Amino acid sequence: MAQHPHGCTCFIIPPKMLRKLAEQTHDASERHCLLDAAEISAHLRGQRSVAPVVMGLAAATGEKSRTVYDGQNKSTLPGKLVRAEGGKPLTDVAVNQAYDGAGATYDFYREVLKRNSIDGKGLRLDSTVHYQTRFNNAFWNGQQMVYGDGDGKLFLGFTGALDVIAHELTHGVTQYAVPGGLVYEDQSGALNESISDVFGSVVKQWTLKQSVEQADWLIGAGIMAPSVGKALRSMADPGNQALTWSGDDQPKTMAGYVENGDVHTNSGIPNHAFYAAALALKGNSWDKAGPIWYKALSLLTANATFADMAKATAQAAALLYGADSAEQHAIQAAWKVVGVS
Ligand SMILES: [Zn+2]
Q1: What is the whole-number distance in angstroms between the Cα of residue 321 and the centre of ligand 1?
Q2: Mean of pLDDT over the chain
Q3: pLDDT over 90 (residue 301)
Q4: How large is the average pLDDT for residues 140-147?
Q5: Residue ranges of the Peptidase M4 domain (predicted)?
Q6: CA spacing 20 to 30 A to 170: which of 10, 45, 81, 220?
């Protein structure tokens, strides 16, 4: 992992959202859960994921290979192995969801983008469920996926949404596919987050066989109680309080860009560019927009900005469909919609 210094410890829920929810709740134990998760999230994020591989080098098997561990409500990773590739479903729903979600994500990358797992070489996909007690988050730690159960009141568990699982796994893809990885701060960090939302949503659409018009373009629908919101983020309409949780602070275009903003905040801008591109290209997001975004990853550098991504996607469209093609024009127009050029 040392050759990938910009692997991140990347969470689906920003610590800021957990703190804000904690301020609003009147339930002391709920507040405690939220603040705990916020603190752990912030602490883990600060760690560079260059630590030695904890699991005894995940094997490059050349084919689909998944393991799911039960964290047994502790914070030691990976925990106890409960299901490996080909193993029968258990009565534990979270285990099966983590297993199936990793499988759907693997299949998408293999079949649609011709990529063999996270590293392109069949890296085993390791997941831990039941991390800590009532933990309100899910994350990729540079080596594996980790899922909390949620407090059961505000957050209902993190393996229930395929886009969340695909989001976390895509952090792994970004770590390997972008030369040097994408630094998890500023615009490159927001891009890192956005790429995970993009493929999180595309994997969900591909699995449900939804066209760009049918898709809900929401991230994290189903992981939270209705009192918190419908979803974490909307790619179609970033910052829409009715579609998302009531504190959604995502800008839709550069006009709302937040200086020194959280990586989950400014990611609304490239998220919306992808949405605009997919809508313009019509049909299914995985036919053209997804492959163009994916090809752009190899054209980025560790500190890439939104403008660099605009350039890389236009270049990727030219490589796939020809310079001056309708596809390339659609990509360029999409970035103009969000004020990036
Ligand atoms: Zn993320």
Answers
A1: 30
A2: 92
A3: yes
A4: 93
A5: 68-175
A6: 81
336 CB-side CA count, 13 A = 8
Q: 341 C-alpha vs ligand 1 centroid, how far in Å?
A: 25
Same domain, 137 and 210: no
CA of 2 to the centre of ligand 1 (A): 21
Question: Is position 105 within any domain?
Answer: yes
Mean pLDDT of 148-160: 94
- Residue 72: inside a domain: yes
Asked whether residue 51 carries a pLDDT value surpassing 50, the answer given is no
Q: Are 299 and 318 in contact (CB under 8 A)?
A: no
Q: Give pLDDT tens digits for 251-271.
A: 999 999 999 999 999 999 999
Instruction: Give me 119's structure tokens.
Output: 């590293």
Residue 242 in contact with residue 250, Cβ under 8 Å?
no
User: In terms of domains, do 150 and 264 share one?
Assistant: no
Phi/psi region, residue 89 (left: phi>0; alpha: psi -120 to 50; beta: rest), is beta
pLDDT digits (tens, 9 = 90+) for 169-226: 999 999 999 999 999 999 999 999 999 999 999 999 999 999 999 999 999 999 999 9
Ramachandran quadrant class, 39 (left: phi over 0; alpha: psi -120 to 50; beta: rest): alpha
- pLDDT above 90 covers a percentage of the chain that reads 82
State the total domains in the chain: 2
CB-based contacts of 76, cutoff 8 Å, min separation 6:
none
Residue 3 falls within a domain, yes or no? no
Which residues are part of the catalytic machinery? 168, 264
CATH (domain of 162) = 3.10.170.10
Tell me how far apart the alpha carbons of residues 7 and 1 are, in angstroms, rounded to a whole number: 8
Structural domain that includes position 118: 10-177
For the residues of 89-124, what is the DSSP string, one character each? P-S-HHHHHHHHHHHHHHHHHHHTT---STTSS-B-
Instruction: State the distance from the centre of ligand 1 to the C-alpha of 264, rounded, in angstroms.
Output: 8
Check residue 91 and report its DSSP letter: S
